[in-house]
Structures are given as structure tokens and as C-alpha cells.
Write a structure and sequence with these properties.
Length: 591
């Protein structure tokens, strides 16, 4: 029997003198004639192999002369300590090299379309087309080792806490996360369709009604959404549900596995995560996913701006939901006109009509609004913004939504300008008490901010019909550094309340029964109070790995236009396949 295979990347000085059998890929060849160096790569790393005419069998050196990048080789040899001056400090195996006695090709490689190296200038399109080569790059392999470790730790933590991993169907009914479904036609039941799950939401609630008490799943979810830069049609959630929980039980569970998961990447998360209500998050940071690595709070300039007669203030405050909000940028008076123009542009991108600024430098105040305001009015505004010497006050007078969105974006810009962002810090938090419902101006209807099974807060229930917009939900998000990692809620567990919420949402009795009949039915047979959450595993892995894109932690991702460049999906199918499903082949597209 031959010797067991040795992972080359693990060889160290202490291995000197050992005979080893390496199997891996040729990463590099340096040919000096009598002396050939091959760098051999396997999952464990790189090791240098030496083929020396003076010391190695001639066939081995001849074979090495033939070796090309990405050939798969089997090498026998002996580990030698490198001479002092020859050690490579950049390589974990740099103290040693393997003197080869045999080289066998297990597979040859064509010239690859790009060099398999961490630093590459291959375009992402090319890398995704040849994903198998791309994935050989250590920088990506590292991400998948981390992803595996994170998923393992999550599973372990949940298993130890009594959560059962239960699989739920992929072929199911349309589920209500508010995105478009991917539909699958039924061959057997002509004209009927399955939907791929947007989440296991209804199944996990049903599992609570089945008495499972604690469920989790690392679940694939599908949403046919317009793909923004960093979204995928299919993604993975850490999905869980508990019976008889309070918010604290859910938070404790999630914090426990997030601490473990991030520790896998050497990241420390301090527990308990701070909590803030949706309203406080909006007032203070303008967003429901605040970056708490720095404070830089917004301020309310509405009282100071009221009654000034200044047109932009009057216009905002005269319309429903209008407000005047500000952001003090400490030391920001030094900002150039050009930078202020950029910030104005940024505010506009986020829906604000414009941006007003005030600078205080010594006794001097400059602002485009200065002439339109009396010195007292100006003072009141600067005082409301706590503007000190050298500060800049940015202000947006608009509807609340636009004002908050614009100032949240400017807050992030300012933090970068002021170098307030500690890149090594991971500031987790919970955002609670989201509104239950939002108003869709176009449809003139209420829609669920999360999904229609989210429980309202008991004390707000009296206003469910009279003032739906004021009802707060028992919903929460977990956020880190400005990223939403997950959201969930304590659910409705009574059929009468579920039907009441459906009515407010304009889901009639017939529609409710048609779409969610099984849930309403199940709620009638003793449904325990329950609640849960789902977190994006891809996002968690990308943040923990410091990866710039979700595509770096998904083995076979799709492009931003939803194409798998390697398999070339989506693709056309044979007309017979369509006919079998009762579908007509589409007419060819006109060119
Ligand atoms: N199903 C929800 C989602 O995917 C999460 C939850 O409420 O548990 O966003």
C-alpha cells in the first residue's frame, strides 16, 4: 500500500526528513534547466517542490519540465529544510521544500483562461464562466471554509438549545414575503402551479402548531426580485421559530449563535446587543439599520424652523408629514463648496428636494439661507443643532421619509469624511417596535411592513381599524454596522385576530381562505403563541469574511442580471418539454 497523501500546505520545519506523497495542482513552474521548481497547490495551501538533476531521478526532472499550470500531479519526495537565505517568509511552508523522487500526471490541463491566483485581473464575468477555476483561488476557498464553520456553529448552538432541524418543501404554494414568486408548472395537474418558497414562514408556524416547540432550518429561499447590485434570486436563511417565546428568548438565541459565528472569523461581538425602537432609530439615525460604530446623531430642527417664513421650511412644514431635520458635522465648516455640492447631490439621490447648510467659523455664520433669516432665527436653528465653532449643520426640509433617508446617507458620508468608522468593530443591535403596516399611496391600501402574520402590540390593538398606521408590531431586526442581518416577529396565534389583520389589509374572507386557508384552519385547533426570525446566511458570511460581494461566499452565484454564466441558465428547453406541461413554446423573439 502506498503512503497516505500529505496535504502540502501543512508541511513545516518539524517535518524535515519525512518522505511524503503530495497530490495537487501545479500553481507555478520555474525552470532553470538543471533545476526546476514547481509550486504545488491543494486545499491546505502551497508547497515548493524541487527537481534537481544532480539529486533526483532523470524521469522525475523530465516530467517536471513538461508540467503546466493546473495540471494535477502526484509527487513523491522528501521534505528538506531550506537553507537559511532561501526561506520564504510569505509562505507558511516557506521553511521547507520537497525534493522530488517521482512525478506522475493524474490529469493534464489546457491553458487556463486566467491565472489561478488571489490577485487577478480577470473580469468577474470570465471568473464566473470558469467558476471551477475561480474557486481554486485560495482567497475564495478561505471563504467557503469559513462559511462551513459558521453554518456548523449555528447548527451546533441551535441543536444544543433544543431546536430541531426540519426540512420544508421547495415545491409549495405562493408564500407571502411580498416579492414575486418563481413558479413551477405542474405536469400532472395541468394549469396548476407550484411556487418556490420565498421563505418557510407558513411551514414553520405550522410546525409550532404541530407541537415541535423549537424549529430551525438553514433554508434556501427564492424571490424573483429586481436584482440590485448585491442580491441573489436564491439565497440562504437561518430560519427559526419558537413556541411560547418572548422577544428576549428570540434575542438570546440569535445572539448566542451570532457570537459563535463571528468568532469563527476572529470577530468579537459584545452581548447583550443594544436595543432601540424603530422610532428612536429613525429620529436619531434616519434609518432602521443604523451603523452604531459611531454616534453622529441627527437633530430635530422643526421647532426652530417653524414660523421663520423661510420658503423651503414653510413648504415642508405646510405639507402632511413634513419636517426639518439636521445633522451636525463636527469640524465640517472646513468642507469645500465642491464637497457640499456632492453632499447635496447625495441628498437628492435619496429623495430630498435639496440640502441646506450652515457653517460657523468664529463669529461668522455662512449659509445660503442667511439672508432669508433674521439673526435670532439663525441663532435658534444653530442652537437647535448644537453647532459649535468650526461645525457644519446640514439640514433637509421635506417629508419625513425623504428627510430621514437623505440625512442617513449624509451621516454615513460624514462618518467616512471624519474617519469615525472603526473598520475592526462590529456593532450589533436590535431594532424593535416596527410599525405593523405601511400605506401604499398608489394602491391606496395598507400593506404589511413585514408579512401579514406579524403580531401587533397588545396595547395598540384598539387602534387597528381606526388608526392602522399607528399600530406597532412585535417585530424586530438584528443589525450590524448598517446591515440588516435578519428580521422576525412574535406572530399572531389567534384566528380571529389574523382575520382582523387580513381585513385591514384588504384581504377579503374568500381570498384569505383561498391563499392561507390551511393556516387559518390550523389556528383553530390550539395554536401556541409563537415567534421567530430569519437571518441571511450569505450576508453573515460575507461580512464575517470581509468579502466585498455576496457572490464571494456563494459557490455558484448568478450575475446581477440573474444569469449563471457557467451553466448558462436560464436556458431554453425542448418544445416537447413545454407541451408536456401544457405550455405553448413562445413565438421566437423579433430581432
Ligand atoms: N419569514 C421572514 C422573512 O423571510 C422572517 C420571519 O418573520 O421569521 O423575512
Amino acid at each position: 500500500m502506498s503512503a497516505p497523501r500529505q496535504p502540502g500546505g501543512q508541511l513545516r520545519a518539524a517535518d524535515a526528513g519525512r518522505s511524503v506523497l503530495l497530490k495537487g495542482w501545479v500553481a507555478r513552474r520555474r525552470d532553470l534547466g538543471e533545476l526546476i521548481f514547481l509550486t504545488v497547490r491543494d486545499r491546505s495551501g502551497f508547497v515548493q517542490v524541487v527537481f534537481d538533476r544532480a539529486r533526483c531521478p532523470g524521469e522525475a526532472v523530465d516530467a517536471a519540465a513538461e508540467a503546466r499550470s493546473e495540471d494535477v500531479v502526484e509527487i513523491e519526495g522528501q521534505v528538506l529544510l531550506r537553507a537559511e537565505g532561501q526561506r520564504n517568509r510569505d509562505l507558511p511552508t516557506g521553511d521547507v521544500e520537497v525534493l522530488a523522487s517521482r512525478l506522475t500526471f493524474l490529469a493534464r490541463s489546457d491553458t487556463p483562461p486566467f491565472v489561478v491566483e488571489d490577485r487577478t485581473n480577470a473580469t468577474e464575468e470570465l471568473r464566473l464562466e470558469y467558476r471551477y477555476l475561480d474557486l481554486r483561488r485560495p482567497i475564495l476557498q478561505k471563504n467557503f471554509v469559513l462559511r462551513d464553520e459558521i453554518a456548523f456553529r449555528v447548527r451546533k448552538t441551535l441543536h444544543e438549545r433544543g431546536f430541531l432541524e426540519v426540512e420544508t418543501p421547495m415545491l409549495t404554494r405562493s408564500t407571502p414575503e411580498g416579492a414575486r414568486d418563481f413558479l413551477v408548472p405542474s405536469r400532472v395537474h395541468r394549469g396548476q402551479w407550484y411556487a418556490l418558497p420565498q421563505s418557510p414562514q407558513l411551514f414553520k408556524q405550522i410546525l409550532m402548531m404541530s407541537g415541535f416547540e423549537r424549529y430551525f432550518q438553514i433554508a434556501r429561499c427564492f424571490r424573483d426580485e429586481d436584482l440590485r447590485a448585491d442580491r441573489q434570486f436564491e439565497f440562504t436563511q437561518i430560519d427559526l421559530e419558537m413556541s411560547f417565546p418572548t422577544e428576549d428568548d428570540v434575542f438570546d438565541t440569535v445572539e448566542a449563535f451570532l457570537v459563535e459565528a463571528f468568532a469563527a472569523a476572529g470577530i468579537t461581538a459584545a452581548r447583550p446587543f443594544p436595543r432601540l425602537t424603530f422610532r428612536d432609530a429613525m429620529e436619531r439615525y434616519g434609518t432602521d439599520r443604523p451603523d452604531l460604530r459611531y454616534d453622529l446623531p441627527l437633530c430635530d430642527l422643526t421647532p426652530a424652523a417653524g414660523g421663520t417664513g423661510f420658503a423651503p421650511f414653510e413648504k415642508a412644514l405646510g405639507s402632511a408629514g413634513g419636517t426639518v431635520r439636521g445633522l451636525r458635522v463636527p469640524g465640517g465648516a472646513a468642507l469645500s463648496r465642491k464637497r457640499l455640492d456632492e453632499l447635496t447631490e447625495k441628498a437628492r439621490e435619496h429623495g430630498a428636494g435639496g440640502l441646506l447648510w450652515f457653517k460657523r467659523q468664529g463669529a461668522e455664520v455662512t449659509s445660503p439661507a442667511k439672508k432669508a433669516l433674521s439673526p435670532e432665527q439663525l441663532d435658534r436653528i444653530l442652537a437647535a443643532g448644537s453647532v459649535a465653532d468650526g461645525d457644519l449643520l446640514l439640514s433637509v426640509a421635506d417629508r419625513e421619509k425623504a428627510a430621514f433617508a437623505a440625512l442617513a446617507a449624509l451621516r454615513a458620508e460624514a462618518a467616512r469624511d471624519l474617519k469615525l468608522v472603526d473598520e475592526g468593530r462590529y456593532a450589533f443591535c436590535w431594532v424593535t417596535e416596527f410599525p405593523l403596516l405601511g400605506w401604499d399611496e398608489d394602491a391606496k391600501a395598507w400593506f404589511p411592513m413585514n408579512h401579514p402574520f406579524t403580531g401587533p402590540r397588545e396595547e395598540d390593538l384598539v387602534r387597528l381599524e381606526s388608526d392602522p398606521g399607528s399600530v406597532r408590531a412585535r417585530a424586530y431586526d438584528v443589525v450590524v454596522n448598517g446591515w440588516e442581518l435578519g428580521s422576525g416577529s412574535i406572530r399572531i396565534h389567534r384566528a380571529d385576530l389574523q382575520e382582523r389583520v387580513f381585513r385591514v389589509l384588504g384581504i377579503g374572507e374568500a381570498e384569505g381562505r383561498e391563499r392561507f386557508g390551511f393556516l387559518l384552519e390550523a389556528l383553530r385547533y390550539g395554536a401556541p403563541p409563537h415567534g421567530g426570525i430569519a437571518l441571511g446566511l450569505d450576508r453573515i458570511c460575507a461580512i464575517a469574511a470581509g468579502a466585498p460581494s455576496l457572490r464571494d461566499v456563494i459557490a455558484f452565484p448568478k450575475t446581477t442580471s440573474g444569469i449563471d454564466l457557467m451553466t448558462k441558465a436560464p436556458a431554453s428547453v425542448f418544445p416537447e418539454q413545454l407541451r408536456e406541461l401544457g405550455l405553448e413554446p413562445p413565438a421566437p423573439r423579433e430581432r
